[in-house]
Design a protein that fits this description.
The protein has 579 residues and is α+β, with helices and mostly antiparallel strands. It is built from 16 helices and 17 strands. 53% of the residues lie in helices and 20% in strands. A hairpin with a 4-residue loop joins strand 3 (123-129) and strand 4. It is rod-shaped and about 195 Å long. The structure holds adenosine-5'-diphosphate (ADP).
């Protein structure tokens, strides 16, 4: 038969409390017995001393008659047996014996209490009296006798003491029974409370560990759950350590320098690539990232990360003998802190510079011969037409391609100038509506467009910016909108002020730009493949020039697909350009 946990607990508590109760009871009983005995002994000793004083006052020599009389009277007065013994051990008086029987009494000189009294002036003895069938207590003391030291002894039956002790036993038994009742109640209540707490603990622990397994009682349920939790924890630790190994391998295998930063920007973790990149900067851990890398770009990126964002910037590594160009990306982590990744793009950057220089040089070299070809072709065509000849297809093709080459070279040279930072902007206060109107008119004329281009610009809208840059941007976007849509398409230019920015939108309802081309059209020479762009001539450099100008002006451009079709080029320019 299986005893439930609750019953086991109940009986264990009862057992413990009973043991405690019994121990207390026994100690109490023994303490009381000692105390009563002690008190009785003291009482008898006091009486013995009183008897001594009476004997001392009696007339000498001490005769049996007189001493027995004294013993009788004193014994009667104190209701105890009094015995007076002379120095030889002969009993001179006894309160409970006749004078005649005294002479037949055996010598009392060998009684333990008498012997002890003669040495210590106080003697005590406990003996069982078969005559009285009770334990006796004897206390004796000495008195001066003309022949030496006599002894006076007081005797008391311990039956009274035993009676008192029996009463105490009874009292203790009653108290123990009451105690048992209280113990049962306490055990019941505490078992109930304890099992209730354990049950709720078991329930909670089970919800983690013992996934529905059989639970016999609270304790075994909890222990089963703890086993399960320990197993789960060990599995989790194993998989965490595997995960960490994987993470470390990936981190160390990366060519990019990786830094984990705490919320104060202190470096808490780096990989080998980071140590190699910043060789000579001392121990990286513990230093702040801005201290180690430096430069305004990093400060800006760290500010973005601190605000919970992320950002990417390119810059040259300062305070480093090697000329290193870095692409840095800093991103905030969800639980505070951030992660920074530095990519050494020095080689790509050098190639980029070489490419730029090459394009600039080639364009520069080609400009003069191409202008000569263009001028000569124009002259040839004019002379041919003056002689009333039919249009010459070869000459016209020559003219078309020469003018296309001229356009490409001029756009390449513009881009080279912008790349080299050679463009100096001239900031003027402009009325945006007038500027937009001028560009709409110019674009319409140059493309022979009959359909008007709509405009939604407040006539008060002013902007401090570079006129040439604004003109180039608007003209490129408007020409594209006309070129890549049908002649009867709707085109609209909108502008509005939002905070410290002016947002300009050029929207058309043409075919729009396919998603795969949307991010690429701002790249140089990228032309979205469509039936229209194949028939319409272009260099693929217009939007790259637009992007460069916007960057110089501190703005940004984005492409938003129009509904149901078409493209919206949205430009955000600061109301006041400081460049
Ligand atoms: P280009 O016009 O000389 O080809 P751009 O850089 O101005 O070069 O434009 C790049 C490409 O983007 C174009 O070839 C065209 O495919 C696409 N594009 C630009 N504007 C539009 C527009 N409004 N609608 C559709 N496609 C456009």
């Amino acid at each position: 038969m299986k005893i439930s946990f609750r019953s086991r607990l109940f009986f264990a508590i009862i057992f413990l409390l009973l043991v405690a109760e019994l121990t207390i009871g026994l100690n109490l009983e023994s303490g009381l017995r000692t105390w009563i005995n002690h008190n009785a002994e003291n009482e008898l000793y006091r009486n013995a001393k009183a008897a001594r004083e009476l004997i001392v006052l009696a007339e000498k020599p001490y005769t049996i008659k007189e001493m027995d009389n004294l013993a009788d009277r004193f014994g009667h007065a104190i209701d105890l047996r009094v015995t007076i013994i002379d120095p030889r051990g002969v009993v001179l008086g006894d309160s409970e014996l006749d004078i005649d029987t005294l002479e037949q009494l055996e010598n009392h000189g060998n009684r333990p209490e008498v012997k002890e009294a003669l040495i210590n002036h106080r003697g005590t003895a406990h003996r069982f009296s078969t005559t009285l069938n009770a334990s006796m207590l004897y206390v004796a003391t000495t008195y001066p006798h003309p022949d030496g030291m006599g002894v006076v002894r007081i005797q008391m039956s311990l039956a009274d003491v035993e009676r008192i002790i029996k009463k105490i036993h009874l009292f203790l038994l009653v108290a123990a029974l009451w105690g048992l009742g209280v113990v049962i109640v306490i055990a019941g209540v505490s078992t109930h409370l304890l099992t209730r707490t354990l049950r709720s603990l078991a329930k909670r622990v089970n919800s983690f560990g013992n996934k529905g397994g059989p639970v016999t009682d609270e304790i075994s349920g909890i222990s089963g759950s703890f086993d399960q939790i320990t197993q789960d924890l060990s599995n989790t630790l194993t998989s965490l350590s595997q995960e960490q190994n994987r993470f470390e391998t990936v981190l160390e295998g990366m060519v990019e320098a990786v830094f984990a930063l705490d919320s104060q920007g202190n470096i808490t973790l780096v990989n080998q690539a980071a140590i190699e990149l910043l060789e000579g900067s001392g121990t990286l851990l513990g230093q702040t990232f801005t201290q180690v890398i430096g430069g305004p770009e990093i400060t800006e990126l760290m500010e973005k990360a601190a605000a919970g964002g992320q950002g990417t910037r390119q810059f040259d590594l300062v305070n480093n003998p090697k000329k290193i160009r870095l692409l840095a990306r800093v991103a905030a982590l969800k639980n505070g802190g951030s992660v920074a990744v530095l990519h050494d793009i020095s080689d790509i950057h050098r190639l980029e510079e070489v490419r730029r220089e090459f394009v600039a040089n080639v364009s520069h070299e080609l400009r003069t011969p191409v202008s000569v070809i263009m001028a000569n072709t124009e002259t040839l065509l004019e002379e041919w037409e003056e002689d009333d000849h039919e249009p010459h297809p070869l000459m016209e093709a020559l003219y078309r391609n020469a003018s296309r080459l001229t356009d490409t070279i001029s756009e390449l040279l513009t881009l080279s100038r912008l790349d080299a930072g050679a463009y100096t902007s001239n900031i003027e206060r402009l009325n945006l509506k007038s500027e937009v109107a001028l560009q709409i008119e110019a674009a319409g004329l140059s493309n022979n467009r009959s359909q008007p281009i709509a405009m939604d610009v407040n006539s008060d809208l002013q902007i401090n910016t570079d006129r040439h840059a604004l003109k180039t941007i608007l003209s490129n976007l408007l020409n594209n909108a006309i070129k890549y849509t049908n002649p009867d398409s709707k085109i609209i230019v909108r502008a509005k002020e939002v905070g410290d920015n002016i947002i300009i939108e050029v929207e058309d309802n043409g075919p729009g730009i396919a998603p795969q081309h949307q991010t690429l059209i701002f790249e140089r020479f990228h032309r979205a493949v469509s039936s229209r762009s194949q028939t319409v001539g272009g260099t693929g450099l217009g939007l790259a020039i637009v992007s460069s100008y916007i960057e110089i002006m501190g703005g940004k451009i984005s492409l938003i697909p129009a509904k149901p079709s078409g493209a919206i080029f949205q430009i955000t320019l600061p109301t006041s350009t400081t460049h």
